[in-house]
Amino acid sequence: MSDHYVKVKVQLEQMKSSGEVVEKEEADIIEDEVPVASPPASVSPIPASGTPVAQRETSKTSVTCRNRSKSRSKLGKDEKNTCAKQESDPALQGTIVASNANSGKPMNRIDNDRQMLQIKGTGKILQGKTEANGNTVPIQPPKDIKVSPHNKEDANKVAKRRKPVTVDTLKAKTSLEALKLSIRQLKWKEFPMGRRSACDIYWHGVSFHDNDNIISGQVNKFPGMIEMLRKINLTRAVRTMQELFPEEYNFYPRSWILPEEYQLFSAQISLAKDSDASLKPTFIIKPDGGSQGDGIYLIRDPSDLRVIAGSHTKQSVVQEYIHKPLLIDKLKFDIRLYVLVKSLEPLEIYIAKEGLSRFCTEPYQEPSQKNLSHVFMHLTNYSLNVQSGNFVHSDSLSSGSKRTFSSVLYRLASKGVDIKKVWSDIISLVIKTVIALVPELKVYYQADIPSGKPGPTCFQILGFDILLMKNLKPVLLEVNANPSMRIEHEQEVSPGVFEYVTSPVDEEVKVGVIRDTLRLMDPAQKKSPTSYPEHQQEEMLGSPVRGPGEEGRVLPSMCLKQVFPKYTKQFSYLRTVERITALFLRFLGVKGNMRLGPTGFRTFIRNCKLSNSHFSMATVDILYIDITRRWAGMLPDSREAGMGLQAFVEAFFYLAQRRFKSLPLREQVVSLLEVCEAQLDNQGKGDLGGALPEDSTSSTRRSVSCSRTQPGRSHHPHHTSTSTPGQALSAPQLCSPATPRRASSQDYRLHQRLRPTHKGNVEN
Ligand code: ADP
Description:
Helices cover 34% and strands 14% of the residues. By secondary structure, the chain is of the alpha+beta class.
């Protein structure tokens, strides 16, 4: 057992005996309100048995009733068939959501009159009272919120004047029910059959392209999000960030892409095992486009893969298996959190305060050859576990196989866990993951919606799946581009007869997320997203519902909480790849293109003055051909020829390494960026379409050119540049430099990872 595990064990022992907060490993970087919910009044805050006694009548709102065969149909299949990466999450039965004084409440819930919960580790007291409409609102607003009567009056007047916002729901698919409820609550206008004239908002069930030819308004999907969140692409995006910021991105388990990296995977594992005979890692294989646990299996050694998959290993990701997850009631569980990416430029991210926790149905044991195939022990997917005889459909929020996340936090808090730190780590994981995705999303965005041409803007709700390790560190499992927003589920009411029943937990969590997303996307709010302090935004968004005769009805407080740009200071230095992307976009040329041609690459080298007698244009061409060809082999499906963003980033890293040999990679890259940006700035070419990430001083949308970047700017606080503009690169090696670079950085990380005394990606 490593020192680290001993430390964690000791911490847990301390927690058990004294109820003290777990010792912190890192300083908190985020001070955020923790979305903890107290259980219903009749539930003991710390149940002796671990299972609350209060039960509540299941809501059985029959939506449709039909006779059908007994065989289980997978809900959400329609979506799954039409896109590569889908998640279907049929609802649980009859669980109710935590009554959280600080979170949004649906309008039809009756709650306890008053709740008060003292949380160990936060010292916070959450209080709530019930309004006539059943909404729980904080008794005292947070101290920074000042409710101005004038603003409310103004909002009322504006509400009378405004036309209702229009929403096209024709393509909403399985999110339709939750969407309808949200639109009704907001008193907006739904167009279920579409509309000849433009709508303000288009709600798509699958992808940006569900409805083509939209030239205005807002669409609830980003182009390219499905592609980016396939397991391989997510892994690549995070891996690039791990190369630059290994410590910051150690929340993603070490992964290899199959089949192309099988040899590497195999070699690295045997190397690690040779250097430490006690090492007994487990790996999880996930098919690239899979969902709901389909096709997933565990192995103990790379050679097992050959036995199971033969020589035709499908495109998949093999990942180190987190073998010490945090358990509750001896069961493994994961967390589903809803995250809204409101805009890419400027980057705006919101997190839902309430999420779901999905439990396994067989007590957890660390992986062994005997239990590797026990899916109910190792996989937390609802769609799998619901098929187990042990699945508990509970009416309580804090028991059963699917619970609210806030009830889990409450449970942890009651045991002395520092849930404030857990929540802060989760926020940090979410922001970093989105930052890793943004560069490629910007390329898709510009290809589909070129700046300067009419087109809609986009936003998207993502489903983050997170595992808490035994040491309470959150680990990213995957991100769903289309998290299920279904609120009804099938229930067999008599043999062979199924009803669609609305699930209270799903209704509460998902309707809240959709309704508040719509509120944030209200065209009337659009002008003001970040220009107002957060408390004012809350106030504005809590403005009376508009619509005929409905003035003055106040919506629940927002369940979505802004985390970016709120925490820009802590995270903006991570946006280095976005700066490289700005260069890429600038030289991409033809609108609608996603690949850089050889001429574009040459122009980039020339304009940034990166060539000279030691680094001729002929060697530039070799570099281009070499890297582009190798990436074409790795992306066999790609239809377009040329250099994609990932290949360009690799070329950029290579150029940076050649030029600034003595520095760490991160500083090499930032130094080269400064050289390029300074050169382009000097040329004063103006805006050619590339968009640098906005920094704290700039919030211009979709048209910030690289030339506006300050030369010498470094996002990283510790960065010191040694570059001099115009300094030449030395000649590249003839074979591609990038493979050895990646391989060596992987070797290094593996070594770090698999030695138990070292800190790795994830301390397993
Ligand atoms: P899918 O899209 O098929 O649901 P996931 O990546 O979410 O694929 O994995 C399915 C389940 O497997 C997760 O919900 C989790 O319980 C488990 N799992 C996935 N990756 C890991 C890992 N690296 N370590 C431990 N458990 C994992």
